[in-house]
Amino acid sequence: MTSRNETALAADAVKALRSIGCLCERVQSGEAQGRHGGHMQLASKGTPDWLVVFRGSVKLIEFKRPGEHPSPDQVDWHERAERRGVTVHVVSSVEQALRAVTGGQP
Fold it and tell me: Closest Cα to residue 13, out of 99, 104, 98?
């Protein structure tokens, strides 16, 4: 198996998720420069990569290459979400992303 970066993994997974009817939105964290020179605050550090809506439920997905783990900021964010009843799915393949969103259902 060839090593793939997270961007390629996410692109393939999002394509597969959209093919089954998911609404997929990329979540950007950090800061960005505004059009007129100011800075915009995006989502906080550690926020999951993608928000996915499927059949009335919302899933948060963090993509990682096989063998890689979330950063400390991501672990902290995921733990804070878990305490509030929300699971962040950390996935390393298209198949894992599909299972996370569908719960293994067709």
Answer: 98
Chain mean position to CA 56 = 18
pTM of the model: 0.84
Using CB atoms within 10 Å of the CB of residue 35, give its burial: 0 to 12 exposed, 13 to 18 middle, 19+ buried. Answer: exposed
Largest CA distance in the chain: 47
Domain membership of residue 57 as a residue range:
6-102
Condensed to tens digits (0 to 9), the pLDDT of residues 24-79 reads: 999 988 778 877 878 877 888 999 999 999 999 999 999 999 999 999 999 999 99
- CATH code, 35: 3.40.1350.10
